[in-house]
């Protein structure tokens, strides 16, 4: 049986047409067009269906919506409406979310297990030789084609004491038995921004420890500094602080954590809480697959290298999603899964993935959404660009909502071609409002056409997009159009 990494009886061997590693986005590949393919689907996760469904996009946003509701009294009071938040029922929120998600995951697993042409293996897999995969129980799978959809896992920082201290991650924090009274969040990215909103809205006292001078440092400066200031009004932000050490504590109230942090001048201080949430990024899972044994090259920071067709450096092996994409976003993994699916079915006429305009959104409060270049990136590239900026407060719907000027839409455009090159939003419904801007960039619509070539419903919130486009110093006259 060759180079096994297990002890035990002689294992089984299977040959299939296609082997998919990862039941997240990889699971969307087999449809009825693959009914005459023999397929092996391998996943080692505790829940079938990958990150987005079980511990990612879907449950987090199901936590965000009740958090937005819990903040309604704050939003309503300045408008003359007194609301009171009586209580947040953590167990009811949690059980609604997982009462919905867990059966979907289980049904998905059952469906695949019962599919006549699919063998489902719920084990860890790694390559032992060219196009030969070995599972934890020693089963070997050879395949004509492989799809690596193995995702990413949480990066745990090397902090003294952390390994000996109970802590939470995004994989675990959503299933806590009780709402924490106090929480320390380490990190200043997506996960920190979203959970700081969720838990503080539910009533947890949240402290966020961030290495840099702001959260969401990859956003445009006008957005990230604004977001940091606004979140700082609701939670205790320790900017420019590093984690020195962590240790478990026990008080009358129960077990907890003590975290020593150091500020920019080296001054040390101590934070305590009942829960520590580590939110310091994710690393791709390629390193756990022994990819060198099958000729798959791994590039910078451990991401599997792929070409425009999602092909790895090994013939017949494709990769998609977090294992190969620096973006680590579900809509990117979904797009790439569609590309891989097409290319498996059409090997003679493959299609390319489209990575030109990848948007993202942070579902915090306020929401943040962006696509394209930040102003700093445009400057660094030496591009000629113009800026259009509009506060929500300058639009009729902004007046209705009592907007004060904190929330903005900022656009960058090329003054020669009038093409948008970047869009950055912070404010209500940013994740939805950005869509016409993504559309304009994707289809090459000029900014002046976008503003004046269609009706914008008055006085809807989307007028802030229209007005931001009109604020770009371009010639917006376009005869014969609705406006
Ligand atoms: C808290 C959180 C919130 C998020 N929110 C959003 C959001 O709002 N919007 C958004 O676009 N993205 C969001 N994301 C990111 C998104 O979830 C991921 O980009 C996406 O799920 C990645 O999909 P994938 O198919 O590449 O990998 P996954 O869905 O992670 O699937 C990989 C699967 O492969 C299995 N696996 C890995 N290695 C092996 C192996 N060697 N053998 C067997 N099985 C293996 C894993 O167990 C896993 O089930 C969020 C992520 C997190 C953590
Ligand atoms: N709305 C969304 O689309 C969404 C939501 C959540 C997560 N995600 C995805 O999940 C990924 C993981 O999210 P995340 O917030 O964990 O990662 P992130 O990359 O967004 O942020 C990581 C943060 O941790 C900090 N950090 C890294 N190492 C550290 C260390 N040793 N000590 C202290 N701080 C450290 C970084 O400076 C950064 O602030 C994201 O990259 C994103 O793609 C997306």
TrEMBL record:
It is an enzyme of class 1 (oxidoreductase). Keywords: Disulfide bond, FAD, Flavoprotein, NAD, NADP, Nucleotide-binding, Oxidoreductase, Redox-active center. Disulfide bonds join 52-57. Belongs to the class-I pyridine nucleotide-disulfide oxidoreductase family. Its EC number is 1.8.1.15. Signal peptide: none annotated. It comes from Microlunatus phosphovorus (strain ATCC 700054 / DSM 10555 / JCM 9379 / NBRC 101784 / NCIMB 13414 / VKM Ac-1990 / NM-1). The keyword NAD applies. The gene is mtr. FAD binds at residues 61, 322. NAD(+) binds at residues 187-194, 281. This is Mycothione reductase.
């Amino acid at each position: 049986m060759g180079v096994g990494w297990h002890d035990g009886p002689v294992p089984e061997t299977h040959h299939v047409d296609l082997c998919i590693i990862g039941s997240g986005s990889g699971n969307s590949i087999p449809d009825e067009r693959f009914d005459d393919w023999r397929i092996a689907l391998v996943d080692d996760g505790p829940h079938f269906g990958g990150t987005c469904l079980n511990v990612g996009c879907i449950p987090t946003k199901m936590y965000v919506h009740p958090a937005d509701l819990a903040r309604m009294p704050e939003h309503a009071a300045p408008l003359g409406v007194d609301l009171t938040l009586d209580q947040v029922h953590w167990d009811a929120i949690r059980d609604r979310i997982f009462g919905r998600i867990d059966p979907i995951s289980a049904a998905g697993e059952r469906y695949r297990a019962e599919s006549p042409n699919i063998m489902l293996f719920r084990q860890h897999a790694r390559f032992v030789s060219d196009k030969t995969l070995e599972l934890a129980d020693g089963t070997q799978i050879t395949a004509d084609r492989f799809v690596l959809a193995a995702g990413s896992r949480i990066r745990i920082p090397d902090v003294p004491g952390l390994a000996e201290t109970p802590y939470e991650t995004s994989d675990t924090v959503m299933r806590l038995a009780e709402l924490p009274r106090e929480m320390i969040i380490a990190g200043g990215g997506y996960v920190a921004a979203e959970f700081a909103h969720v838990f503080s809205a539910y009533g947890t006292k949240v402290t966020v420890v961030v290495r840099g001078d702001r959260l969401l440092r990859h956003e445009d400066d006008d957005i990230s500094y604004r977001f940091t200031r606004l979140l700082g009004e609701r939670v205790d932000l320790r900017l420019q602080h590093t984690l020195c050490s962590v240790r478990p504590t026990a008080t009358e109230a129960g077990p907890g954590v003590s975290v020593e942090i150091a500020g920019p001048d080296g001054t040390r201080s101590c934070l305590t809480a009942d829960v520590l949430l580590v939110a310091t990024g994710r690393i791709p899972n390629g390193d756990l697959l022994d990819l060198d044994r099958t000729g798959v090259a791994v590039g910078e920071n451990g991401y599997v290298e792929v070409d425009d067709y999602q092909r790895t450096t090994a013939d017949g092996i494709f990769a998609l999603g977090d294992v190969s994409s620096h973006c680590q976003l579900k809509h990117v993994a979904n797009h790439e899964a569609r590309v891989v699916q097409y290319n498996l079915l059409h090997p003679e006429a493959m299609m390319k993935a489209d990575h030109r305009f990848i948007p993202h959104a942070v579902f915090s409060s306020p929401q943040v959404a962006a696509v394209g270049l930040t102003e700093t990136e445009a400057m660094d590239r030496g591009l000629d660009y113009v800026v259009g900026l509009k506060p929500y407060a300058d639009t009729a719907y902004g007046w209705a909502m009592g907007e004060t000027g904190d929330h903005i839409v900022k656009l960058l455009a090329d003054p020669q071609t009038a093409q948008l090159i970047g869009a950055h939003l912070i404010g209500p419904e940013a994740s939805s409002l950005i869509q016409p801007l993504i559309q304009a960039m994707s289809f090459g619509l000029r900014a002046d056409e976008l503003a004046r070539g269609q009706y914008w419903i008055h006085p809807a919130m989307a007028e802030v997009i229209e007005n931001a486009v009109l604020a770009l110093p371009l010639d917006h006259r376009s005869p014969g159009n609705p406006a």
